[in-house]
Each structure stands twice: as C-alpha cells, then as structure tokens.
Amino acid sequence: MARAAKISTKIKRAGRPTKGEVARKTGGTERLLDGVMQNHGASPLTRWKAAMELTDSQLAAIGWCQKRWALVGHEQRTTASYDERTSPANDDGESGAMILRRMDASDDLKRVCGGNGMSGEYESGYIPRAYWQTFENCIRFDEPAGTAGSRLGRSAPSVRALTVVRFVADIIADKERLQF
C-alpha cells in the first residue's frame, strides 16, 4: 500500500512545474506555499534592465558610477598609514598612474555624494544623502529594492527604490554631461 501512495503522489505532481521552472518563468522569484514571494533572482539592476525600465542615459550614469566604485573599492581603512613605504597603494606595485586614477575616482564620487574635501571639512554633494544611499545600496551592494526603498516610505518600497535610482541617475547624467 505504501508503494501505491508514492506512485499516486508522483502522478499528482506530474502536471505541476518544479521550483526551478517557476523561478525561471517569474524572473527569479518563487511563490512559496504560504503566499510569500521569496527572491531567488539577481540584483535589482539586472531585473530593471531586463524589464527595460531604465533609459540609456540612466544606464550610462550607472555605468559611470560602477567604474568609479571599482577603482575606489569597497573597504575603508580604519587605521592610518603614515609611511609611504607601507602605504596600501604601493604594496601591490601599483603605478603612479593607477594611484592618480583612484584619487580622481574618489574625488568624482565625493563631488556627487559628498565627503571630506581637501580642507578636511565635509562638503555636500549634489545628490541628497538619503537618495544617494538608496541608489548605492541598490546598484553597488545589490540590496533588494524593497528593503532599500522601505527607508523612504511604507507604500510600494520597490517602486520607490526604482524611482530614486532613476532620479539619481538622471541627475548624474545631466551634471556629469554623460554621452549615451
């Protein structure tokens, strides 16, 4: 009898798609039994590109930021290095040109989002801090759009995140005079 139950269970499941098929059809999301959507997809940027929700100028601005983030890196040092022989930039054998590119990228990002300037005082950028953090969390750190957008309000957080990313990307494309 136990064997017949297993066969009937297999017959019942034969018409239903597997979890992997559901995830591919729904763009990376999978509906769970209790009705909760769980994200198994890629970053918000990947989904927005696939849905063609970003314009060419917005994608150019996002690419501009990604190039600078790649040069600057993710980590910030917590201790100072005062000796030029032990400088973190020179231990890899980096050329002076690469060091200058990193400095230029850092200056570009500070101009956009703000940071400590040459005088040591904080200089605000042309993007408000809350909007920049949402943009950076969605694009740079691949935080889910609903989580990033929920800091700005309660209704439709993923739509809020997309709106903020579009807004910030349009301002960057305009201020930096990006060609697309």
Written overview of the protein:
With 180 residues, the protein is mainly α. The chain folds into two domains: 1-41, no CATH class; 42-74 and 88-180, no CATH class. It has eight helices and four strands, in the order ααββαααββααα. It has helices at 2-13, 19-25, 44-50, 56-72, 96-113, 129-139, 145-149, 157-175; strands spanning 29-31, 37-39, 115-116, 122-123. The chain has a two-stranded antiparallel sheet. The chain has a two-stranded antiparallel sheet with strand order 3-4. A hairpin with a 5-residue loop joins strand 3 (115-116) and strand 4. Helix 4 crosses helix 5 and helix 6 (129-139) crosses helix 8 (157-175). It is globular and about 45 Å long. The model has no long low-confidence stretch (mean pLDDT 77).
Please give the structural blueprint.
Blueprint: H1 2-13, H2 19-25, E1 29-31, E2 37-39, H3 44-50, H4 56-72, H5 96-113, E3 115-116, E4 122-123, H6 129-139, H7 145-149, H8 157-175
Antiparallel strand pairs: 1-2, 3-4
Helix pairs in contact: 4-5, 4-8, 6-8
Quick structural summary:
This protein is mainly α and 180 residues long.
Q: What is the count of distinct domains?
A: 2
Shape: globular
Mean pLDDT: 77
- Measured between the Cα atoms of the first and last residue, the distance is 67 Å
The total of helices stands at 8
Rg calc: 23 Å
Strand content: 5-15%
Main sheet attributes: strand count, strand direction, barrel closure: 2 strands, antiparallel
N-to-C order of helices and strands:
HHEEHHHEEHHH
Give a count of the beta strands, DSSP E runs of length 2 or more.
Answer: 4
Helical content, roughly?
40-55%
User: Numbering strands along the chain, what is their spatial order in the largest sheet?
Assistant: 1-2
Spans of at least 5 consecutive residues whose pLDDT stays below 50 are none
* SS-based class: mainly alpha
